[in-house]
Amino acid sequence: MNIQPNLLFDDDDDEILEFNNYRRRPYTVRDRINHIMIKWDDHDFRIRFRLSKVVVEQVLELITDNISVENQWNCAIAPIDKLLLTLRFYATGSFLITAGDFLGVSKSSACVIVRTVSTAIASLCHQFIRMPTTDEEVYTLQRCFYKIARFPRAIGAIDCTHIRIQSPGGHNAEYFRNRKGYFSLNVQTVVSPDLKIMDIVARWPGSCHDQTIFKNSNIYSQLVNGKWGNSLIVADSGYKNTSHIVTPFINPRGNIEELYNESIIRTRNPVERTYGVLKRRFPILSLGLRLKLTTSQAIIVACSILHNIACDNNDLEAPDLIDIVLPPNEIINVNHEVIDEEGCARQQLIR
Prior knowledge:
Elements: H1 5-20, H2 42-49, H3 53-67, H4 79-92, H5 96-103, H6 107-122, H7 125-128, H8 135-149, E1 154-164, E2 184-191, E3 197-205, H9 210-215, H10 218-224, E4 232-234, E5 245-246, H11 255-267, H12 269-281, H13 284-287, H14 293-312, H15 345-350
Helix pairs in contact: 3-4, 3-6, 4-5, 4-6, 5-6, 6-14, 8-11
Protein name: DDE Tnp4 domain-containing protein
Pfam family, one: DDE_Tnp_4
Family: Belongs to the HARBI1 family.
């Protein structure tokens, strides 16, 4: 086989010439838009950033130390600008380059900002997402749930929702593909009557069932150990009836079971409403996350914390969406009625 020697070096010569002729792009600082100086009224501000000015100022005060830089060299981005860029990314669910253009920064800067701010907000989890710790708080929750549909002893409503993500890659990527065929995280939350999230688990892949996530969560062990006494958590039929978890009957027989179903369905309604408000407030949770898995998990927790802070400020309804159509909430898991545990709370309630 005859090979001309010159052909072996032509490609190398081209690469050398290309390297020698390479000119680095000039360093430029874009004109940044100051959204604080723009006189947005409260309505326009909430539409663009999904939160009121009061809530944004409160969040900024909590995370400023974690997202600030030590100096202002090279036109450093201010903490308020970082927070607004992140909120705009949550509000649109668009590409990072679009979020960067909104403020006048590069795509790489937008990526770092979203990751940094989301992690800083998620670090506030133990401060704003927590279950009741005192007998008075337990009693207050039981009384509030009882007012909904006269269901006794309930302190929370539990359910899971799927958050669409891109394929995480690797050998375990298919574990994240749910029954609908797309990649997701199956996120579990426990919700109070006023739509606040009291517990969240955002680490399980989309192929996992709700009951599996619950049995491996901290709240399950706390219930089993009797931390909240004889209190109950209401759930759908995807969960197993135990001494602390109660679900509706799939095939009710008689008036007693029908009345029980009506009461428990109305009592667990807050968790469904919470998912609706959360995904309308932050459309990125409906449209999907195209980021690394760890960043996606931080964003889910961060959005939940922001939702709770908004609820604390009586901002319970998300602002209307403009030119964004959200996909409907899908029921992924098929509910099969599971054999009740001996002495389960549901049998005690209907006697």
